[in-house]
Write a structure and sequence with these properties.
Strand content: 25-35%
Helix content: 25-40%
Shape: globular
CATH class of the largest domain: Alpha Beta
CATH topology of the largest domain: Rossmann fold
CATH architecture of the largest domain: 3-Layer(aba) Sandwich
Number of domains: 2
Number of helices: 7
């Protein structure tokens, strides 16, 4: 049963037939079903996620990673406390958080939170722009069992032909360029955009515009930290999920206020 649990945990959002389990463990399907019922109960009691059962000849079980809202809030409350450290204040009101985005345990938790927030969306791929958003995107994609597409700041020769667009950075108001290889994304894909920090949303809006060139659809937008100093009327779009919000920055005293994001408001 322990090995079966690990097998499910390592294959999220993957339909596994009872026959596959029966062959793997040389056991009757009735015994497999009993074990899965116990695992399902443990997953739900411990807040590890859900085990969905699909009936029929082509049926089986599928593990959906999820995290309880109360657990997510505890994690992000601690993250906010760490982000409020004065030494993290950067010119322009930005936060230094590269060190935090290099912590595997935190990334695993954040990925699971994003996966919970978008678990019910029909998603084909997770997208981010280089570079700090990459670990967040991979952590989220790992929980959703999806591929990751990385938008580049410039075209790489090793990626072949690409689509490039110009966009206006929402924070600096400068015109910048982003590029995506034509082979990286299938036409008509449903895309979950993940980003590390958002002010007015220029970078994310740039990715949204880039997706139009692939006839792709934005299935959702997840942001690790958003700037609360940007008003709703200044934001380039308002349909997104944030896990933390930077509400105030005093550059003189290096004091900041960081609170849980809009994911915890609903």
């Amino acid at each position: 049963m322990v090995e079966m649990t690990q097998y499910l945990l390592s294959r999220p959002h993957t339909l596994i037939s009872l026959t596959a389990f029966a062959d793997r463990y040389q056991a009757a399907k009735s015994s497999i079903s009993e074990d899965l019922a116990i695992i399902k109960e443990v997953f739900e009691d411990e807040g590890l996620g859900e085990l969905h059962t699909l009936a029929g000849a082509a049926g089986g079980v599928k593990y959906i990673p999820k995290m309880k809202r109360s657990v997510s809030l505890d994690i992000m409350t601690e993250v906010c406390r760490q982000l409020e450290q004065p030494e993290r204040v950067l010119p322009g009101g930005y936060l230094y958080m590269t060190d935090m985005l290099g912590q595997p345990r935190l990334l695993q938790d954040v990925g699971r939170i994003f996966a919970t927030a978008f678990a019910d969306r029909d998603i084909d791929v997770v997208m981010t722009v280089e570079t700090k958003g990459i670990p967040l995107a991979f952590a989220t994609a790992n929980c959703l069992n999806l591929p990751v597409v990385i938008v580049r700041r410039d075209n790489k020769v090793t990626e072949g032909s690409a689509v490039s667009i110009n966009y206006v950075s929402g924070s600096t108001k400068r015109i910048q360029t982003m590029s995506l290889a034509r082979r990286a994304l299938k036409e008509g894909s449903r895309v979950l955009i993940i980003d590390d920090f958002m002010k007015a949303g220029g970078t994310v809006q740039g990715m949204r515009d880039l997706l139009n060139e692939f006839n792709a659809t934005v299935a959702g937008v997840g942001v690790f930290v958003e700037s609360g100093e940007i008003g709703t009327e200044e934001r380039l779009f308002n349909d997104y999920v944030s896990l933390a919000k930077l509400t105030a920055v005093d550059m003189k005293t290096k004091q900041m206020i960081v609170v849980p994001g809009n994911y915890f408001e609903s």
